[in-house]
Specification:
Keywords: TPR repeat. The protein is an all-alpha fold. Helix content is about 70%, strand content about 0%. Helix 15 (about 290-300) runs antiparallel to helix 16 and helix 18 (about 340-355) packs antiparallel against helix 19 (about 360-370).
Length: about 425
């Protein structure tokens, strides 16, 4: 298996060879996590929450059966299915929410924009971005809550790479006392490469969430802010905010995964990372943990288990109901082997069609790199990637192309920048950067 990136937080996982252990933060003074901080959370289960949500679904669905035109019941059922998906990542729940939202949107005469917006957000989660745009465009035409529609229009525009449109929409809703505005302004600044501004806006959003005392708002902003702190090298702050999220939601898989990444990439403790991940797996059906574990087992030189987990991930992620949700993961995997590079190119072209962003084009360039067509990889990168995204993985892929084409003048400064990304890109990628 070859270097690849997993979508953790900003999507990272890696391997550290013994040669580079000193680059992987294995010194005692760099150990900042403490099992006593989070062990209790690893022993929790969301089974009671899921059981309660299943009871709610049964209640609302029983009402729908009596009168299928009851829009409120359809909406409540859809909301509960969405809550179930958020708990256990069961794609069936997201699909059922979609079905009920579709029915509600078709039947609604009042508040139709609410159901269309919710359906757009459901499609975003499924990576069906063009369909999301159709739904949110319809919501905007209906009227209703214009600001709420503009925020989702912004989300869709960013996913589709329509950045000028996204900025125009965001400027329409400028209000530094508005949580929804601030978290999207942070997203814009992140896209623009302004990490300090991103963190500042997220911190301001956090203050608003804290004052509101709405648990879901706080959990979301704590975990996302923890991600950004990690990108900025503020690992202690990152860790603390994952713990803050877990204090509110002891079964929160995202926060636990964030801590697992810290133990792995920062503290060079793969066994602890595996322990955390395996605790998460009992409460989730998400296939990406298999790929995360695959990387860690590769680190431990257990290649057989690593390969088995990789195959497990592919089998699960290519299931029909997932659609294109795991396309980026699969491109990375297929591009790493010459015999599957053509499959990577086909999938990457689909990603570009679905989501024509610089990162999708980076996947396409990387797929051609995997096939050995370095000239085509460079053409794509130059036209669609270089100078258009600040994501380190895209920069790493570009650096690989420069290396293959012996473009040392372009490679040298890029390598210097990449050498500062050891935590974010992880040890295996960092080891590859060293070799550039």
């Amino acid at each position: 298996m070859k270097t690849r990136q997993l979508p953790h937080t900003k999507y990272l996982i890696a391997l550290c060879t013994s040669i580079f252990l000193t680059s992987c933060h294995s010194h005692k003074e760099d150990i900042l996590t403490d099992q006593n901080d989070y062990n209790a959370y690893l022993n929790t289960s969301n089974s009671k929450v899921i059981s309660g949500l299943n009871d709610q679904v049964a209640f609302w669905n029983s009402r729908i059966k009596k009168d299928s035109s009851q829009i409120i019941d359809l909406s409540k059922s859809a909301g509960t299915y969405t809550a179930l998906f958020n708990q256990n990542a069961d794609i069936e729940m997201l699909k059922k929410a979609e079905q009920n939202l579709h029915k509600a949107a078709q039947k609604a005469a009042i508040g139709k924009d609410n159901y269309l917006r919710a359906l757009a957000q459901n499609y975003i989660t499924q990576h069906r971005f063009k369909e999301a745009k159709t739904m949110i465009d319809s919501a905007a035409q209906v009227g209703g809550e214009i600001s709420a529609s503009n925020f989702v229009l912004f989300d869709v525009a960013m996913e589709l790479g329509n950045y000028k449109e996204a900025k125009t929409l965001l400027d329409k809703e400028a209000d530094f006392s508005n949580y929804n505005y601030l978290i999207r302004l942070a997203k814009w600044e992140d896209y623009s490469g302004n990490l300090d501004a991103t963190i500042q806006h997220m911190e301001n959003a956090m203050h608003i969430a804290d004052r509101s005392n709405v648990a879901n708002l706080k959990i979301w902003v704590y975990t996302n802010l923890a991600d950004y702190y990690g990108h900025a090298g503020r690992i202690q702050d990152s860790y603390n905010h994952y713990l803050k999220a877990l204090a509110l939601d002891p079964s929160n898989a995202y926060a636990k995964k964030g801590i697992a990444w810290i133990t792995y990439s920062y503290e060079n403790n793969p066994n602890e990372a595996l322990r955390i991940i395996e605790a998460i797996e009992k409460d989730t059906k998400s296939p990406d943990y298999a790929l995360l574990k695959s990387e860690i087992y590769e680190y431990l030189n257990n290649n057989k288990t690593a390969e088995d987990l990789e195959k497990e991930f592919i089998n699960r992620a290519t299931a029909t109901n997932y659609g294109d949700m795991y396309g980026a993961y699969l491109v990375e995997l297929y591009a790493s082997q010459p015999e599957t590079a053509d499959k990577a190119i086909t999938l990457a072209k689909k990603e570009v069609n679905n989501r024509p962003t610089p990162m999708s084009y980076d996947l396409l360039a990387h797929a051609y790199y995997g096939k050995g067509d370095y000239a085509q990889a460079l053409n794509i990168a130059q036209e669609h990637v270089i100078g258009k995204t600040y994501e380190p993985m895209a920069q790493f892929h570009t650096a690989q192309i420069y290396k293959a084409l012996e473009m040392q003048k372009e490679l040298t400064p890029l390598k210097e920048e990449l050498l500062e990304t050891s935590y974010e890109l992880g040890p295996i990628t960092y080891a590859e950067i060293i070799k550039l």
